[in-house]
Every structure is written in C-alpha cells, then in structure tokens.
Amino acid sequence: MKNEIVKKRILLTGASGTVGFEALQHLVENPDYEITVFDVKTRKSIKKLAPFQSRVEIVYGDIGNQEEVQKVTQNKDAVIHLAAIIPPLADINPELAYRVNVQGTENLIRGLEIGSPDCHLIFSSSVSVYGDRINNPEIKVTDALKPSPGDQYGETKVLCETLIQNSNLSWTIFRLAAIMGNHKMSKLMFHMPLKTPIEICTPKDAGRAFANAAGYLKKLENQIFNLGGGENCVIVYESFLDKMFDRFGLGKANFPRRAFAEKNFHCGILKDGDVLDTIIHFREQNLEDYFEMVSQQIHPLQRKITFLFRSIIKKWLLSKSEPYRAHIKGNARELNQFFNQSEYEAREILV
Fold first, then answer.
1. 73-125 per-position pLDDT tens digit
2. Relative to the CA of 197, which of 4, 54, 61, 295 has its CA 20 to 30 Å away?
3. Which UniProt keywords apply (predicted)?
C-alpha cells in the first residue's frame, strides 16, 4: 500500500487583493497544497473568491481581531501574508492602516507561534521602506530603511518587518517594486516626481513569486529580497504616465510641472532583484506585456468617450493635485513637503 501524500497546508491572507488574487490562482494549480484563505468579508471579496469555494477553504474575518486570526493559524506549514491597507487609503486613514498592517501582522505572528510554531511566514513588504530615492535610485536590500515623511504605509511596513524578524518563526520578506494592477487615477499620481526611475512588476508575476516561494522555503529562510520585474520593467515615471494616458484616450499627461512633487516619495531600480528570480523563477512579463494588458482592458468605445472629454477629465485630475494646490496657495509647510525649497524659491512662481 502506497503512503498517502501529505499536502503542504498554506494560509493566504488578502486573497481578494490585486497580488493576492494572482497568488491564489497560481497556488490552486498545485495539487500538493491544501489552501486556506483568510480575507475580510465584502461584496468584492465574496464575488472574487466564489469560484474557488470547491478548491480552497475560505474563512472571512478581521485580521485585526486576535481571536478570529487564532482560528485560522492552527496547523499551518506556510503563510503568505498579503493582507494590508495600501495608499491612498493608508494615508487617508492611518489608524486603519496601523490596525490592519501592524496589529494584523502581530496577531498573525502570535497565532502562528502558538498554533503552528514550525510554520514559515512569507511577508509582502514594499519598496516604500527605502523612502525618497530620486537622487540615488539604485536600491539594494542592505540600504537603510527611511520611509518618506508622511508615508504611513511605508512606516507600517518597517514596523511589520521588525515584528517578523523578532518572532520565533521562520520567515521571508519580499520588498515589492511598484505593482501595476487595476489602479484608479487619484491624487497619489502627483506625489511621485516625474523624473523618478521606476521598476514595476505585473500583478501576475508578483502573484507567481509568492506562489513559487512556497516551494523554496529552505532556500529563502530568514532572508529579505527585493522583488521587481527586472531591467525590462524599468521606465521613467513621466514616460510611464504618457503611455498610460495615451492608452486610456487622454492624450499626453501634459499637466503643469508644479502639479508633481519633487521629493518625498519612493520607488527606484532594484539592483539586486535578480537574486530572487534566480531562486524562484517568477519573471515572465515585461513593460510591453503590461501596457498590452491595459489596452485590452479598455473598451474601444470607452476610449473614444474618454478622448472627447479628456480636457475635462484632466482638469478634474489636476484639482486633486496636492503639490499644485500648495504651489497656487503658497502654503509654506506643504511646499516644503513636496518641493525642494531652495530650488523653488530661486524660480519664478509661475505655472
């Protein structure tokens, strides 16, 4: 009689999110995994996760609630922790970001230390932990962690990393590059300096990375990695915006230069990002794949309508720009937050 194969028991948090949903789709392809999903119960999450009900255990709950987390952290071999409040909501509601990101991670650690002490925790951190790198955009894991002023999300990720490294669990931390998924245009687009070199990673590749990581736990144990798409996914932010606006039917992103901040954001080029891909082999897409995906998601009629109203739409977007409002009002505190003050004062205050 053959021995029955013991499946690896994996807990995935945040499965209804952009990267989490991609990770789930990759994980369910492996017959050797027994998957439990823990997610907040919303109309969106119920709809997205419904097709997986027959293949995974779905538990809805609040990661900020220790008792609810305790129930799903029993007898697990690996946890892929992707649940988090991200910008712009993290900046709008920092209390919620702290409760979900930091306290939620702490609850998860406590639950695993009691119910699954031999479990391996894989955590999704962010390039935002490195802070403003506009003047030195080449980033390595060994660089200092210094989130930009006011970056609530980056600060929560630094706190989470500390909690994880001080835990009794085996762990791995991935610091993600800019994950370009189904982002809505918001005021956050104006926080990044136009000249910022950015390395993106598609949601599909990022999800594949977390799913693949479950098969390489020993090689990843107690290490931190930068996770990005590689050299074929690097672009200057100004060019990225122009390409995106063109695909949506908005023409060029021809906003006043003062609509964009000059400092205090993040992103850059992950110079040691190849290390992770060498181990878990997750990169399959590049920038062109991403832009093609965006184009396919936009209906031709929608693009034509957007083109007709492009001036109104861009005027509305400009009204959301905090750096532009600070420039118009001459607010000294906000000007210092978004602009290089000495350079700003040396120029004529003109749009």
1. 999 999 999 999 999 899 899 999 999 999 999 999 999 999 999 999 999 99
2. 295
3. Carbohydrate metabolism, Galactose metabolism, Isomerase, NAD
